[in-house]
Amino acid sequence: MFKASPLALAVFLTTVLPLVSADRTWPADSVPAPKTGNFDDLVIDGRQAEVFQHGVRPEWGYKQPQQDTFVVVHPKADRKNAPLYVVLHSAGHDVMSCLKCTRTVGNHDIYRSPDDFYALYVDCRANKGDWWWGGMHVGDAGLTQRNSGSDLSPVEKRVMDSIQWTMAKYGIDANRVYLCGNSMGGSGTLGIGLRHGDVFAAIKANVPAGIEHASHRMGFPPQSLPETVKLPDPPVAIDYSAQNDNWSKGHERFVKAMNDRKYALYFYWGPFGHANNHAAIEKVNDLINTFDWLSIKKNEAYPVFANATGNGTLPWPDDLKSKSAGHINAFFRWKNLTDAKGRLEMSLFLATPATVKTTFEIPKEASADVSLRRIQNTHFAPGQAFKWTFGSAHGEGKADASGLVTIPGLKVTAEATTLLISQ
């Protein structure tokens, strides 16, 4: 997207005004949003925008009536089975000001959706008590107490229902739904996104304002999940945070929990503060946009790289004044080859200077424990034996108590090597 000139903006305002709509099927009490105030100049780089307002559903569990607004932005060109880009705004915004940020490159860049995607922008500003993303920070003791545990809050249920409604209404590709957010919305991205791997292919959090929300909803230590809560394989997660940002405290616990649970995490850090301008952040850590998270599909297997060599040393919790930038798992890549009953083939390799432009030194080799999630056509029972080959290496193993397959200590290089798993 680009920053429109006054003349171009005037043309947009007279020719591409948003279509303000209501759908009577769901939300059931939806009413047309007014063509006044914040709505009358909502222009998203020539893309059609629809604004929806509605009340609440009883099953969300709100204790008092609420009014919600969400906005759906269309792709620039009509397309069927399009992906969906879901945005959670920061505490300093509401849904409309969040959208207006997308007009200007450098202004909360994570809010800007690709032109060929549908985009859903939801709101948490209007409803009292909906400060759930960011409200789980260690400094917000009252909100932490109210929002603790594994149960979803009303706003989380509202957001997930809004996503499902949008997917049905616009014929979204169910395997390409992505969640992202900044600050408070980054915390919500981790907290909602990790919990709903049955919906999101991948998630990306820009300087999330706290990791407590995710820790509670996922049962990360010192929390735990009730035995009745069974979580699907989570989406691949991308997180970039700054050690000189007070909101980032606790990331050492989050990174450890993701590694120990064998959840896929690409994590980048550096002393860039609570920033939202990608160009500014990339001057400190130029890796934040090098992983193509929007190419991941929910109906494809993916590898998790745990205990990998070549990762940086986290500055949390004792080196917050560090001027260094670093990463976890930044250069691991993969390609699915075969996912058939009783047989999975996946190519593993490292990025190279030809594919990733960075000031970091790209290793020629890195070892990691590789686990395989979202396998589509082969189910491994707890303790079931499997065989594996990886280049000239080979061996046998057993699935863990959840049926997860892990091969320890694989040496991955820039040369694509096929990992074969068979029953």
Number of helices: 8
Total discrete domains: 2
> Do you know the CATH topology of the largest domain?
Rossmann fold
Quote the average pLDDT.
88
Shape: globular
- Superfamily at the CATH H level of the largest domain? Alpha/Beta hydrolase fold, catalytic domain
In short:
By secondary structure, the protein is of the alpha/beta class.
Please explain how this structure is put together.
- This protein has 2 domains: 6-299, Rossmann fold, CATH 3.40.50; 332-423, no CATH class.
- It is 17% helix and 26% strand.
- The chain has helices spanning 6-15, 95-101, 141-147, 154-170, 184-193, 212-218, 251-260, 278-282, and strands at residues 19-20, 31-32, 49-54, 68-73, 84-88, 118-122, 177-182, 202-206, 236-241, 265-269, 302-306, 326-328, 332-340, 343-350, 365-373, 385-390, 393-398, 405-413, 417-422.
- α6 (212-218) links the parallel β8 and β9 (236-241).
- α5 (184-193) packs parallel to α6 (212-218).
- Mean pLDDT is 88; it is low at 1-25.
Show the helix and strand layout.
Elements: H1 6-15, E1 19-20, E2 31-32, E3 49-54, E4 68-73, E5 84-88, H2 95-101, E6 118-122, H3 141-147, H4 154-170, E7 177-182, H5 184-193, E8 202-206, H6 212-218, E9 236-241, H7 251-260, E10 265-269, H8 278-282, E11 302-306, E12 326-328, E13 332-340, E14 343-350, E15 365-373, E16 385-390, E17 393-398, E18 405-413, E19 417-422
Parallel strand pairs: 1-3, 5-6, 5-7, 7-8, 8-9, 9-10
Antiparallel strand pairs: 2-3, 3-4, 4-6, 10-12, 11-15, 13-14, 14-19, 15-18, 16-17, 16-19
Helix pairs in contact: 5-6
